[in-house]
Amino acid sequence: AQSVTQLGSHVSVSEGALVLLRCNYSSSVPPYLFWYVQYPNQGLQLLLKYTTGATLVKGINGFEAEFKKSETSFHLTKPSAHMSDAAEYFCAVSLIQGAQKLVFGQGTRLTINP
Amino acid sequence: KAGVTQTPRYLIKTRGQQVTLSCSPISGHRSVSWYQQTPGQGLQFLFEYFSETQRNKGNFPGRFSGRQFSNSRSEMNVSTLELGDSALYLCASSFTGGTYNEQFFGPGTRLTVL
To answer: In the list A2, A33, A46, B48, which could disulfide-bond A74, CB 3.0-4.6 Å?
Structure first.
């Protein structure tokens, strides 16, 4: 069964510092990988996705992630944190093309210190 | 284009009751998926409907059911409510045309079972 592990349920960085949120997946076949963000009392918003092609994926709000098959990882990064980045971030995987079923990690709450 | 809408946004029920939640997808989207979000279990896939047929199902008891109408609107029903059913229920819609299509999430319905 596919699974997703997000290392660190809480991450705290200073404004302007690098943001690194870790995600590892277990899958015997190439997966489709996603990062979502959730602000308080809101639904999920897609930050970026990896399906095929280039392993470095750029998303919205300056975020990017790199698919590393050898490490089964899909870590999310942003060079310079902004206060508005404070939210909960979810990594998700889907194995089946066209199947609208996502398996989510437990989430990482990102706090930005002024 | 209007986003995914969910009604009601908040709901309070007592144990043993049943509840129906509604989701209106983005115009033109034919797939609707439902997820349950709780602090303990995180985000879990409930089921997906496409063209009025259930296409995928998660590991939830039969008390959880759903349906989709010809206009792609979807409802989910939970019968004989238990305290553990208290959660944020998220609906997501996608176009689903072959390759993976992004899921757009609604704001959710927060269900509290007393």
So the answer is: A33
